[in-house]
Design goal:
Number of helices: 29
Number of strands: 26
Structural class: alpha/beta
Largest sheet: 9 strands, mixed
Helix content: 40-55%
Radius of gyration: 48 Å
Strand content: 15-25%
Length: 819
């Protein structure tokens, strides 16, 4: 068993792999080195990312864009508006429980010029009540008395004064005037209709500018404030009762700066109508809408503070028309409608336990418009007053009363474009959003996604751009497709994700890095490509262009190949110069292509000799294996060429190959006038010596022990050939022959294992100084394989040592006395 193990050792048993972990570390180190060389493009990407995050933070977080970046905010708002305009109908869900009674142009032709008599509103309420309407909300403020009966009241006053001055007064005339005054007292009729209907929300309006306050005295403003004070938000609850008063004052103040939402005054409904609201369990709600800086209404105001006192503790919070309409529609008592706040601002609006919405700190929500103008059904007020509508039109519905007629209509600009969107329909959208939780959300979650996308299109993309091929860098722009799809999908499901900043980061990242690499790196690449295209494969040049510093001289483990044509001198004497050049060019071209195909570096041609190496300029595992594969492919290609040359009557070339693995100095070397990329050192010299030894052993591919140990391909077949001491070296070298590869005719020969095992047994007897036994084996081997050069060489040695044995201390090393 021991002898068998020794024979197997001589056959060349494969060493175990160093392990995948080491290769993984080398790969990571190579990637880090490549990235470090491209650190400038990555720094550009990193800078763009930081700048994008800076713009995003100052422009969109808190929705308070600075003047400097207002154009960025405008671009994003335009991108959002586009999403509204192109949204398919399948994603629009207008609530059928909402309907609009419109004070349109036609109603003025039928009911008379505006303002109508309040008697018409009374008839309208009665008609809707009888049809089953549940809530009536007015996008109108009735701040002044109805003037319809004013002439009758003036005539009655004149008649009474005439009687008091001695004139005659007809009691019947006074009775008729009293009857007519009551008949045309629109406020009284409207008030009674409000009480009969019950769930009525009259609108009030807050004043913000000094222009709005012009001509309104303090007494009037105080009177309006006192009327409005009867209708505050039902419940205002502090998250922390211990600091509740302080937090509430802070909340009141936050409406001022930076939002500028603190009203300077208000208009309220006249006392008779307000009293009717109290009697009928109705309320009031403000219908102010606050456009964005570009004039487009995208937010709804759900709560506002107001008070006339300078002490904020005397102020109240008031609900919007939309909030009050929803509360009435759901039939919620005051104790089930609450505004929750904390030290950070408003945290929630609760409409009973099952409907909770979470606006921003000052009670605003993004309106998720369900469509353009007339998304919700309109009915002319003239038709309602005259009861010309289908029965059931208003049954169980919220009825919004507003104006669209020219001159009196409250028309607004919305994401759908022109200034033609009735304000009353904006309130319909807000009520719809509240009832169905359809608001367009943009809060902490959306900000987190936005910033994650900015980072993704900055840092990871920057890493890829720094290492990618220039022609493939523009592929980074294709990320806009899935990104745009994701933003669109999020919008359809109620999320507003920022489009401009992430997409701008992506485009700027690709653009700036591409320009830098085109202007700066391409100059370096042209230099490298021109210098190395003679002796590097296109793939190696491509990789080298990513890191030109790799050509600087340094020590590195490589595998060196020397190949030389045998008997080239005698061949050259038989051919003229042109024929010799053509033959040599054909041979060198094919051999060089094989070197390149295996990722090798062509060092130089030395006449008919080829010097190449693997493992540089890039550190890589498996360079010894690639060199061995290249050597076998060279021999296979040479056999094909030999057949062709024989058929053409040309001299047939034969070669020997030497492979050696070890540390060498590799890089650009030479003079200031001329230099080249080459390798120097003992490893190179040993490879040259091994190539020359092929003549001694009549072999084709010889390699050193270090190369053999570094090969990891189990399909390569080797045999341990000899232990020699080459000229100029003191340490002996174990010599191996690369015989063949599995999967080829030579490697799959049925007797190859027997051949190699018989050779190994002969060497075993040889090393044990059993010359006769070794001679017998080698003679037996040559009878079956007469072309085995190493067996013939050993047979001659055995005969020589049998006649004159070496010294007793002979260690099996054969000393070469020539190169």
């Amino acid at each position: 068993m021991a002898g068998t193990s020794r024979v197997r050792a001589l056959l060349g048993a494969r060493p175990k792999s160093v392990g995948k972990s080491r290769r993984g570390l080398r790969g990571l180190r190579g990637w880090l080195q490549a990235w470090w060389h491209r650190r400038v493009p990555f720094t550009i990407s990193l800078g763009l990312t930081v700048f994008a995050l800076f713009i995003y933070s100052y422009t969109f977080i808190g929705d308070r864009p600075t003047a400097v970046f207002s154009f960025v905010n405008r671009l994003e708002l335009d991108a959002l508006d586009l999403r509204f305009r192109i949204r398919p109908d399948i994603y629009k869900h207008p609530d059928p429980r909402i309907i609009i009674v419109d004070i349109d142009q036609r109603s003025q032709e039928i009911l008379g010029r505006w303002p109508f008599s309040r008697a018409h509103f009374a008839k309208m309420l009665d008609a809707m009540r009888e049809d089953g309407a549940k809530v009536a909300a007015f996008d109108i403020t009735f701040s002044k008395p109805d003037e319809t009966a004013a002439p009758i009241r003036e005539l009655r006053k004149t008649v009474i004064e005439s009687g008091q001055n001695g004139g005659q007064t007809n009691p019947r005339i006074l009775a008729d005037l009293d009857r007519l005054s009551k008949e045309y007292d629109g406020d009284e009729q409207f008030a009674r209709a409000i009480e009969r209907f019950g769930n009525v929300v009259l609108g009030n309006f807050f004043l913000y500018s000094q222009y709005d306050l012009k001509g309104v005295d303090d007494k009037t403003l105080d009177r309006y404030a006192n009327i409005l004070a009867d209708f505050p938000f039902p419940q205002v609850r502090a998250a922390n009762p211990q600091t509740g008063q302080r937090d509430l004052q802070h909340l009141m103040q936050s409406f001022g700066e930076p939002y500028a939402l603190t009203p300077l005054g208000t208009q309220a409904n006249i006392e008779p109508l307000s009293a009717a609201l109290r009697n009928g369990h109705g309320t009031t709600g403000f219908f102010n809408v606050e456009p964005d800086p570009d004039g487009v209404v995208r937010h709804s105001l759900l709560v506002l503070p107001y008070g006339r006192s300078k002490n904020l503790e005397d102020w109240d919070l008031y609900g919007s028309l939309d909030v009050q309409a929803v509360r009435m529609f759901l039939g919620l008592p005051d104790q089930q409608t609450a505004l929750d706040f904390s030290e950070t601002g408003i945290t929630a609006l609760e409409f009973g336990p099952s409907l909770v919405i979470r606006p921003d700190a000052v009670g605003r929500m993004m309106i998720n418009y369900q469509g353009g103008v007339a998304t919700y059904p309109y009915v002319s007020i003239a038709d309602v007053v005259n009861r010309k509508f289908q029965p059931g039109t208003f049954r169980g519905k919220i009825v919004l009363v507003g104006a669209s007629a020219t001159g009196i209509g409250d028309l607004r600009s919305t994401p759908f474009g022109e200034i033609n969107y009735p304000g009353v329909e904006i309130h319909a959208n807000v009520i719809d959003n509240i009832l169905n939780r359809y608001f367009l959300y943009r809060g902490a979650n959306q900000v987190a996604v936005d910033m994650a996308l900015i980072l993704l299109f900055g840092v990871p993309l920057g890493l890829w751009l720094a290492l990618a091929q220039p022609r493939s860098m523009l592929l980074g722009l294709l990320l806009l497709v899935p990104f745009g799809g994701g933003v669109w999908f999020a919008f359809l499901h109620g999320w507003w994700l920022n489009f401009i900043i992430p997409s701008g980061t992506l485009v700027a990242n690709v653009g700036f890095v591409a320009v830098y690499r085109a202007l700066v790196e391409e100059k370096e690449k042209r230099h490298v490509r021109g210098a190395f295209q003679q002796y590097l494969s296109p793939e190696v040049i491509r990789r080298l262009l990513q890191n030109p510093d790799l050509v600087k001289p340094r020590k590195q483990e490589i595998t060196v190949m020397f190949s030389d044509v045998r008997g080239f001198t005698s061949i050259s004497e038989k051919l003229d110069a042109q024929e010799l050049a053509a033959l040599l060019n054909e041979y060198l071209t094919d051999m060089t292509e094989i070197v390149f195909a295996q990722g090798g570096t062509l060092d130089k041609y030395i006449g008919d000799a080829v010097m190449a190496f693997w493992g540089a300029p890039f550190e890589e595992t498996g360079h010894a294996t690639k060199a061995c594969r290249a050597a076998l492919n060279m021999m296979a290609r040479l056999k094909e060429m030999q057949k062709k040359w024989s058929a053409e009557g040309k001299p047939v070339l034969d070669i020997g190959v030497g492979l050696s693995t070890g540390i060498a100095s590799v890089g650009n070397m030479g003079s200031a006038l001329r230099y080249g990329y080459t390798a120097l050192g003992d490893t190179v010299n040993l490879s040259s010596r091994l190539e020359g030894l092929n003549k001694e052993y009549a072999t084709h591919i010889l390699l050193s022990e270090a190369t053999y140990a570094a090969v990891e391909d189990p399909f390569l077949i080797f045999r341990e050939l000899d232990l020699i001491r080459v000229k100029g070296k003191l340490q002996p070298v174990t010599l191996y022959e690369l015989v063949a590869s599995r999967g080829t005719p030579e490697g799959d020969a049925p007797d190859i294992e027997e051949h190699l095992e018989l050779f190994a047994r002969g060497r075993l007897f040889y090393r044990e100084r059993s010359w006769e036994e070794a001679q017998t084996i080698f003679e037996q081997l040559l009878k079956r394989w007469p072309e085995d050069g190493p067996a013939r060489m050993y047979l001659n040695r055995c005969k020589e040592y049998h006649a004159a044995a070496p010294d007793a201390n002979w260690d099996g090393v054969y000393v070469m006395t020539h190169k």
